[in-house]
Write a structure and sequence with these properties.
Elements (H helix, E strand, L loop, with lengths): L12 E2 L5 E2 L10 H12 L14 H21 L4 H52 L1
Antiparallel strand pairs: 1-2
């Protein structure tokens, strides 16, 4: 007699979290260290609202300064200032704002790095503290 139910072709493996992996593992099996590293990299993804400041660069500072100078030039032109005076003030603003933008970017980036290092140190202290409590 013909079989009415079709048998599964592949074994479905369930995970502890309840997810079912329908595709078989490809390639070689990961070692425990590789699996832990992959899990850590997945958990390190930032939340949508959380921004990571980029390292400071003179090119970004120059772009910010150029935007500020153009806005300042437009603002002065809007208020009816002499065009030559407006250009001179815009160039002065460019010269003032570029180093200021670089220093501000550097400040925020260094503050971010310090906070990340502090978080890392706290996690390491908790991990080593838990190990000492067991021993």
């Amino acid at each position: 007699m013909a079989q009415t139910k079709k048998r599964r072709r592949r074994k479905h493996r369930g995970t502890q979290g309840g997810r079912i992996d329908t595709r078989p593992a490809r390639g070689r099996a990961r070692s425990r260290a590789e699996a832990q590293q992959r899990a850590r990299s997945r958990s390190k993804k930032k939340k949508p609202g959380e921004r990571v400041p980029q390292p400071p660069s003179w090119s970004t500072a120059l772009k910010k300064g150029a935007v500020a100078a153009v806005l300042f030039l437009g603002l002065l032109a809007l208020f009816g200032q002499n065009p030559v005076t407006s250009v001179v003030v815009a160039v002065f603003m460019l010269g003032f704002y570029v180093p200021m933008a670089f220093m501000l970017d550097r400040f925020f980036h260094q503050r971010y790095l310090r906070k990340e290092a502090q978080k890392r140190a706290e996690r390491e202290a908790q991990r080593t503290g838990a190990r000492q409590a067991e021993g």
